[in-house]
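input
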Amino acid sequence: MKQMANQRAEPELPTRWGPEKRLEFIDFRLRWDGRLNRGDISDFFGISTPQASLDIARYLEMAPLNAVYDRSERSYVATRDFQPIFPSSQPQKYLNDLLMQAYGILDQGVSFSGWLPSVAVAPTPARTLQADTLITLLGAIRRCQALEMTYQSMTSPIPKKRLVSPRALGFDGHRWHVRVYCHQENGFRDFVIARILSLGNEQQSPKVPPIDQEWETLVTLVLAPNPGLPDAHQRVIELDYGMVNGELRFECKRALLLYVVRNLGLDSAEGKAPRVQQIVLRNLAEIAPLLPAQN
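output
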């Protein structure tokens, strides 16, 4: 039976991502799987085989030396001259994907990875927090509102109430914090989200919080191998951290500086054996005044 002339054709289902993402996928698979065929692209993105062929052809126009067609394997194989053309093909992205899949955070159907090696992650105790608490904090951040917060700190035997204006979230490598302006203390503070016992309804802030200078200011840290290590071991540390000219420079928000220094063991490096404290902070004299005073 003929289709009626005025009957609408079925709309094409949208593909998962656009053409640039498909080129990125080709680049990623060639680098980390070493091979790719049209079916890999069709299956992942839900596109036709002819479209997958066009995508491969376009990729090879951009990087003609990156792959050749192997008739015996019916696949495009990465050449020895392969050079990635997308940042997502860098090692850290691949390893981050493996890590998130090992944690169960990232589904394999979302990752560009094809074949996966066996991966294990050293387990750490999970830090739990209430979904309602996080939702309330996000709402206050989005709408620039204040909240009455009841918080149990490690420095007080009883919970305390305070009026805060949440402004941002931060992760210290172990726990999630909320960055707030505390109206009682007239300053910005970090609070561990899991230690928040209750939050009140949103309300207008009694005053507009100032700019959080510590959050907006970036600090440069300069890491170097511990000079007490033998030269050969110092070179190993340089390789571990990807150091250039014997040092690694990276930036962090001043508000997170203490967490970074603690995570690297640099807050108590003095007196440790070089084999234990393998890195040092080369610009310690510059960084020390920015750290809170130790009690």
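quick obs: Residues 19-32 form the longest helix (14 residues).
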